[in-house]
Amino acid sequence: MRVSVVGAGLGGLALAQGLRGAGIEADVFERDPGIVARFQGYRLVLNPIGFQAVRNCLPTRWHPLLDEIVMDASAEQLILDPQLNEIGRLGAGRTGIVVDRQVLRHLLLTGLTVHTDAALTGYDVLADGKVRARFARCDPATADLLVGADGVTSAVRGVLSPHTTPTDTGVRFVIGRTPLTDEFAALSKAFGSKIAGDGVSLLLGAMRFRTSPKQAAEQLAPEVTLPDFGDYVRWAMILPPNSSLEDLTAQDAVLSRMEGWHPALRALIEQADPDNSTLLSIRVVKPGERWASGPVTLLGDAIHATSPTGGNGANTALRDADLLRRCLIEVDEGRRDLRNAVDDYERQMFEYGALAVRSSVEKLPAFAPEAKLS
User: Could you give the residue ranges of the DSSP H alpha helices within 22-96?
Assistant: First the structure.
């Protein structure tokens, strides 16, 4: 069996790794001109389901390395004012496993065949039931299954389920990271909490590596090459819907809304890495009506993009990858046919995917009260 995966995000790469480990051929096609062509490096919190899904998809020999590049995290989820005084609580404290997205992505890329600059233009279901994917600058690829793991603007979804389209909440946020130095020790109680300003929310999260990723790979899995990162603070400012940034840089857009804030907070933004600071929009994709199961399916944000305020986007994509991996292994072992396996995957994925989107949207007003949620 052969699988074509469109999209080299965490979900698509986890699926490809899981299939590769089971002896199933999997090729990954990425529309970006290179693997590190754009910023994808911020901190993630994985819940037990998401973290176990990663472990299931990776070779067991890499599990010690995975355990070394993550950290346990807990946060009180306070609400603070711009002077770092506690003024409320977001809810129950949150725990999980913290990992750097870019580090995890490099681990998942190891050993895979990834075709970059491969933008999907369409696909054809052939008479024998296989599917041929067509690309703008890449030779066509024929496989038993085509998986669209290509994000909110999924080209695969545009053909498979054209009525399923993203909803723009109108909310924008600026995200970036700053090296974690002793200067920012005073901010520790703000990690995992919300700082509420005038119409904006600032969220901070610490990424502390047990061992630097590069060093950990050299010691535990020499065939893996990981980025040479140090500890950092991930910050994100959620802006009011349809905010005008007036051609400001990401850092200036944040600083312009922090007049009179605690000096340590302003210094955190001033000392951020400009190459890892960017403006993003919050769009969601709600799973709609099921399509007829066949040799094409979707995974992750391509079918259930969530608001980041839910903290469940990566977790749900990784859950998809692990579930689809297990279904396809059963096909490869002759225990079920492909159509039945894909139908089973989609039935379960639609159910928990819709719940993840709904949960994330319900939490968005706590950070952006004027968000458009219809």
Answer: 48-57, 63-68
Question: What 8-state DSSP symbol labels residue 287?
Answer: -
Give dist(CA 172, CA 250) in Å, integer.
11
DSSP structure string for 86-152: EEEE-SS-EEEEEEEHHHHHHHHHTT-EEE-S--EEEEEE-TTS-EEEEESSS--EEESEEEE---T
Contacts of 120 (CB under 8 A, 6+ apart): 6, 29, 31, 133, 134, 135, 136, 150, 155, 156
Radius of gyration of the chain (CA): 21
Average pLDDT on 312-338 reads 96
Q: Which pLDDT tens digit goes with each residue over 352-370? A: 999 999 998 888 887 776 6
- Taking residues 60-81, report their average pLDDT: 89
Picking from 250, 247, 269, 274, the residue whose alpha carbon sits closest to that of residue 259 is 269
CA 329/CA 336 separation, integer angstroms: 9
Least confident window among 47-51, 126-130, 242-246: 242-246
Give the pLDDT confidence score for residue 69 in this predicted structure.
93
Shortest CA distance to 17 belongs to which of 30, 27, 7?
A: 27
Q: Does the model's pTM come out above 0.90?
A: yes
Between residues 75 and 212, the one the model is more confident about:
212
Task: Give the other-Cβ count within 10 Å of 131's Cβ.
Answer: 18
Q: How far is CA 307 from CA 55, 132, 161, 373, in A?
A: 25, 33, 21, 11
Place of tokens 């590069």: 214
Q: Which range (90-99, 131-140, 286-295) has the least confidence?
A: 90-99
Strand partners, 112: none
